[in-house]
Design goal:
The chain contains 9 helices and no strands. The chain has one domain: Tetracycline Repressor, domain 2 (Orthogonal Bundle), CATH 1.10.357.10. Helix 1 crosses helix 2 (32-39) and helix 2 (32-39) packs across helix 3 (43-50). It has helices at residues 6-25, 32-39, 43-50, 53-78, 82-93, 101-113, 118-141, 147-167, 174-190.
């Protein structure tokens, strides 16, 4: 007889196990058995809760996006100026919880998955639109004439630093990634790009 109230706990354990397996292996080529083993349950139970490996991947991606969204919202609450809002988004993007090796690897693999999965593509599109929209809103409030161009550049740099980190050839700390982003922002703003 199933234990009442265990489903959310087990689903959460499977989502975390999916992220860790993808992160450890650096690929989406993981099995339900590997994920279930890491979560401390049987593959049959994992299939019972999600139905397929692809559904587990989608749940893991939604979880990552939910954590990222919460990180950004928390950082934006504390921001007092338009520039502070841009910095908050950058800092949230490289927060320790987000920039852990397994999360970075999972992000990269979800980008790969989006090439063949409609659900993954939809989730990544939602993330990209929100990121650019948040950056664009803050940059326009800061009075930057080329806010759209800078928002696209900052979003691309965030993704680029994640790719660099996932490749693990020349790892960068979260603090160093933030410094790179702030330097780019400062150099752009110092060119007198305000309207």
């Amino acid at each position: 007889m199933p234990k009442v109230g265990m489903e959310p706990i087990r689903r959460s354990a499977l989502v975390e196990a999916t992220i860790h397996e993808i992160g450890e292996r650096g690929t989406l080529d993981v099995t339900v058995s590997q994920i279930a083993r890491r979560a401390g349950m049987s593959p049959a139970l994992a299939h019972h809760y999600f139905g397929s490996k692809e559904a587990m991947f989608a749940a893991a991606m939604r979880h990552i996006l939910m954590l990222y969204g919460a990180e950004v919202r928390g950082a934006l609450i504390m921001a007092r100026t338009p520039r502070g809002r841009v910095e908050a988004i950058i800092r949230a993007s490289f927060a320790p919880r987000q920039f852990r090796p397994e999360m970075v690897s999972a992000w990269l693999n979800f980008y790969v998955q989006a090439q063949t999965s409609d659900e993954a593509r939809r989730l990544l599109n939602v993330y990209q639109r929100r990121l650019r929209s948040n950056l664009l809103h803050a940059l326009r409030q800061a009075g930057l004439a080329e806010a759209r161009t800078l928002a696209r550049g900052l979003a691309a740099m965030i993704d680029g630093l994640y790719i660099r980190q996932a490749l693990r050839n020349d790892p960068i700390s979260a603090e160093a990634a933030i410094d790179v982003m702030m330097h780019y922002l400062d150099s752009y703003m110092s060119k007198g790009q305000t309207s």
